[in-house]
Amino acid sequence: MFTRRHFLSGLSALGMGANLPRAARAADGATPALQTRRIPSSGQAVPLIGMGTADSFNVGTGQAERAPLREVMQRFFAAGATVIDTAPSYGQSEAVVGDLLAELGLRERAFLCTKIGASGRAAGQAQFQESLRRLKTDKVELLQVHNLVDWKTQLALINELKAQGRTRYSGLTHYNEGGQGELADAVLAAKPDFLQINYSVISTGAEKRLFPMAQELGVAVLVNRAFDDGRLFRQVAGKPLPGWAAEAGISSWAQAFLRFALGHPAVTAVIPATSRPDRQSDNLKAGVGPMLSAQQRQSLRSLFA
Predict the structure, then answer these.
(1) How many angstroms separate the Cα of 79 from the Cα of each of 22, 33, 112, 126, 256?
(2) In angstroms, rounded to a whole number, what is the distance separating the alpha carbons of residues 197 and 225?
(3) Count of alpha carbons within 13 Å of 52, Cβ hemisphere only?
(4) DSSP for residue 200
(5) Which residues, at least 6 apart from 123, have a Cβ–Cβ distance to it below 8 Å?
(6) Rounded to whole angstroms, how far apart are CA atoms 195 and 171?
(7) How many angstroms separate the CA atoms of 83 and 73, rounded?
(8) Average pLDDT along the chain
(9) 81 alpha-carbon distance from chain centroid
(10) CA-CA distance, 72 to 49, in Å (whole number)?
(11) Is residue 30 predicted with pLDDT exceeding 80?
(12) Spatial separation of the C-alpha atoms in residues 290 and 278, rounded to whole Å
């Protein structure tokens, strides 16, 4: 897999005000703050780069396993990022996220997202209560129906939990292009606050219906699988970046792929997952600088044609 360059590791911790990140500072000078976009249903701003936890945070309790993840999380918040996405089905990920947020005293700065992936109201309630226990919190910022499992029942439950103050936002998710039609139908019928879907240079199906619908209805979009499970890196291994990359402030393929996903105006944030601190820092660099032009986006597409 492509080796990403090491980002500045001397970022100092920063505070959060009104959910907008202040500029972080590196040891050798000012570092620009992560750019933000607003959630249509509320106007709240969130940073463009978030973090997924599937596989990457599914580890045990040992110090050797958790130390890299602790640094991954520290770099994440030091750069001004906030959005962390997890799920009950991600093994130990919820528990690890909860433990590290509590240990580092970062829960109040996190925009914490999890999911319900159960059939039946009682099962959904029980699963959410267990998620709260594992995450060491009494509420989450975003609660999503995972891959549309019993979505009408669970979204009704999520809306009740919103009214109770247990979550602020509702969402529906899927992870592949085969599920996008059903997801679009559900979004059109229910109008949740968020949808989450896969989108990358080689998986652009969301552009056809989901993204225009999200813009029309005012639904925020989280993008998963922006690296297509690593396939993009394998296909560009050993290849130089496009000639325009430096001009766009891009110094790695990871930044190019994330900036591509962020280039669609419907997208609110991307949530790449990693267990490596150097890759976390590299991912975060995609959240500053200009968005790619139409020509630059097409240049990336042409590499995989």
Answers:
(1) 9, 7, 17, 35, 19
(2) 8
(3) 22
(4) B
(5) none
(6) 5
(7) 11
(8) 91
(9) 10
(10) 13
(11) no
(12) 22
Around Cβ 247, how many Cβ atoms within 10 Å?
A: 11
Angle 226-177-85 (CA atoms, 0-180°, nearest 5)? 45
DSSP E strands: which ranges in the chain?
16-17, 20-21, 25-26, 29-30, 36-38, 45-47, 51-52, 83-85, 111-116, 140-145, 167-173, 194-198, 220-224, 269-270
| Measured distance CA(100)–CA(86) in Å, rounded | 13
State the Cα torsion 227-13-9-53 to the nearest 10°: -30
Task: Give all strands of the β-sheet with 111-116 in edge-to-edge order.
Answer: 51-52, 83-85, 111-116, 140-145, 167-173, 194-198, 220-224, 269-270
Q: In angstroms, how far apart are the furthest CA atoms of the chain?
A: 55
Q: Which tokens is 74 given? A: 């520290």
DSSP labels, 82-146: -EEE--TTSTTHHHHHHHHHHHHT-GGG-EEEEEE--SSHHHHHHHHHHHHHHHT-S-EEEEEEG
- Name the pTM for this structure: 0.90
**Tokens linked to 7:** 């980002």
Residue 22 has pLDDT above 60, yes or no: no
Paired tokens of 270: 């991307």
Q: What is the spatial distance between Cα 104 and Cα 77, in angstroms, rounded to a whole number?
A: 10
Rounded average pLDDT over 52-70: 97
Does residue 219 surpass a pLDDT of 60?
yes
